# Entry
Amino acid sequence: NGIVQAGGLAGMNFCCRRSDLSKADPGQLASEFWERSALPALSADGRSLCMDKGAMVGHAKTFPLSLFLHQRYHYSRAYAGSQLTTLRRIVHPILAPLLVPLLIVRHGRAALASRRVLGQWLATLPLQVLFFTAWAWGEAVGAALGPGDALGRIE
# Structure
């Protein structure tokens, strides 16, 4: 448990009272990522947002692999296309492929530290490579060409 700034929370993994969410602009909520719209609105009146590692968020929808990879691509394209400065738009498409080994190493270190999940991590490594490749490709395209209609394609 700990207090974190609004920018440090993952947008898709938070919960709040509906009355608190009404403080955010509905148009902005529909056209932007939660990290840029809802979370700042919730903390604007001086309240702190906190992260509780004990709270678990489940997701019960089943995705075929192709849909899952398309969703990751669209999310990454929309995010990179709307977040990056002009300079980063030039550099990011070149560096985006480095996300794949970087994230594999980062997750691998966490799996090694845990030891409990190392076997599962190794078993899922081919899927992780696919996932991170779709992610990197989405970021590269988003940085180079902008978000396009990717935000509207996220389910």
